[in-house]
Amino acid sequence: MSRPGRFTGRAIMVTGSTGMAASAARALADEGAHVFVVSRTAEHAASLAGEIRTAGGRADHAVAELGSEGAVDAAFDSLRSAANRLDGLFHVAGISGRRFGDGLVHEATLAGWESVMAANATSTFLVCRAAVRQMLAQEPDGFGRRGAIVTMSSVLARRPAPRHFGTHAYAASKGAIEALTRAMAAAYAPHGIRVNAVAPSLVATPMSERAQSDPAVLHDVASKQPLAGGPIEADAVSPTVLHLLSDDAAMVTGQVVDVDAGWGLSER
After folding, report:
1. Model's pTM, two decimal places?
2. Catalytic residue among 165, 170, 188, 263
3. N or C: which end of the chain has fewer CB within 10 A?
4. pLDDT at 3 over 80
């Protein structure tokens, strides 16, 4: 059930409809946000939005392939019809490209590289571009704020783990997202738009099912992520995301926040 909270009266777009996206969307709605879910999977997007409404929250959805410029523009047209403004964006949608040909650089295919970069880096560019354009067109609030954006990186952008996670296009795409996040933060801070990123380690989501089913990976992750003792639950990432989207983080921009259960401190 939604309740008055940090996001009451605010429209927040969440791209993706499972895992960390779904968790954040539920949490945002619970704090009063009008959530706009965008996903390429119609069934998941409709189900998540319906679940939020059934629980007493506000939610709409759109279906879009976020690597497509036209599809992103159409999704934002739908947002404007539903909410007429955008106060926050959590861009989660992306892929792990192993099945498309990603891997160690000497083994990866060009098709794998291009698929991952399109789904991760290009989609971030297109969605953030549309979000910034919308925010710039809005009147700022009484404090000069127009909106907040949170992008999705990964610990693998800066802390590789080649034994189990040797997907170089994926790591490169997340590094590109971090660079774009900092560049946008610098450019748009004078306009009242904040841009930050979260960088999780292994989270228990549908995208990480391969890793979660591999005993060797789970053995190593238990020590690399000592705060979790294994994969992090998606709901453990959402509080950081909501903090960054909220006025609690009004003076925070251009940051990449690791949510890694200790991964970055591990010697393994």
Report:
1. 0.94
2. 170
3. N
4. no
